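ok so for the tutorial part 2 we go from a plain amino acid sequence to predicted structure tokens. step 1 is just haveing the sequence, like this:
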Amino acid sequence: MAESPEIPFFAESVAAGFPSPAVGELNGTLDLNQLCVRHPAATYFVRARGDSMVDAGIEDGDILVVDRSVSATSGSIIIAALEGEFTVKRLHMQGSDIQLLPENPAYSPIRITPGSGAEFFGVVTFVIKKLHSPR
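step 2 — the prediction. this is what the tokens look like for a chain of 135 residues:
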């Protein structure tokens, strides 16, 4: 396996609102595995398909970083299997009521009932997206 190149990491953040003067202080390098993968033995990557989670910032083609060792709580975005099909949704739990909520009003919530065979396969901890395609 080829060694990953060291890519510079700047200490100064970039304003997403009003521009600020560029300082450009180099703060070493950043290894995305160290940033995104807390539990290597329990982490996997999967590509999102579809548009049911667009309002959560997850779009078709994005790479999801999923950690199976993180406990899912109400509000977590999770990977679940329903009737043999995998899906990414926001988990909503209120008492014994469990639902998988889409983040797009064009889709309906999915109620999880006892005996439905639904399985949870981890919590989405990061989303990696491509914003620009080279020409």
